[in-house]
Amino acid sequence: MSLSREKGAARRAGAVKLVVSIAMALLGSAATAFAAPPAATAVAAPPAMPMMVVPRAIAWAESQSVTALAQGRALTPAQVALARSVGVGHAETVRIMVVDRFPLPDDELVRAAALRIGLDKPTIAGLTLGHAVMVRRGFENDARLLSHELRHVAQYEAAGGIPAFLAQHLRDLDRYGYEDSPFEVDARAHEREGAF
């Protein structure tokens, strides 16, 4: 967790992860809207909307990862060193794709969630999907952002890929919330300052 709320808010604004945030938004609203009724009230469980959306969000993430890996550039030697310093095992497979805007999902439910969390806003600076790191133009040399995103690459590697990472992260988000999610706490702990 960050040292202060202001730092936490600034870091979130700089590096919100799309797919995780989409699922978080859906799970968070579902957890609130579908809270168990008091024991004396017998009500049928509502449909599990997040369960319908999560596989679609994962499919979108995998598709975007393929695109970013094909169109992105390899890490520079300094970025390879940074990647290794934060635990990336296969830095040679990481690609960075600089974007003016992050892509939005075509799927209506996933797109709506992406818009709710602000994917179309200029404050979103980074998005990591497996070995693909997308960064907003102007942030491609920001060591703090890249170290945070590269730590997520290491987490994806340790988990075994996009579906496994997201499955664990979603459970953690449901249990701890975004700020205290172990993957986010860990990524913030590995942030480095400076520029390339």
* SSE pattern: HHHEHEHEEHHH
Total domains: 1
The gross shape turns out to be globular
C-alpha Rg (nearest Å): 17 Å
Strand content: 5-15%
Which structural class best describes the helix and strand composition? alpha+beta
Got a strand count? 4
Distance between the termini: 26 Å
* H/I helix tally: 8
Mean pLDDT, all residues: 78
Q: Helix share of residues?
A: 40-55%
User: In terms of per-residue confidence, which ranges show pLDDT below 50 for 5 or more consecutive residues?
Assistant: 1-20, 23-49
* Largest sheet geometry: 4 strands, mixed
Strand order of the largest sheet: 1-2-4-3
Give your account of this protein's structure.
The protein is globular. It contains eight helices and four strands, in the order H-H-H-E-H-E-H-E-E-H-H-H. Strands 1-2-4-3 form a four-stranded mixed sheet, sandwiched between helices. It has one domain. The chain has helices spanning 5-14, 18-33, 49-71, 77-85, 108-116, 143-159, 162-176, 182-189; strands at 73-74, 95-99, 126-129, 132-136. Helix 2 (18-33) packs antiparallel against helix 3 (49-71), helix 2 (18-33) packs across helix 5 and helix 6 crosses helix 7. Mean pLDDT is 78; it is low at 1-20 and 23-49. The two termini are 26 Å apart. 55% of the residues lie in helices and 8% in strands. By secondary structure, the chain is of the alpha+beta class.
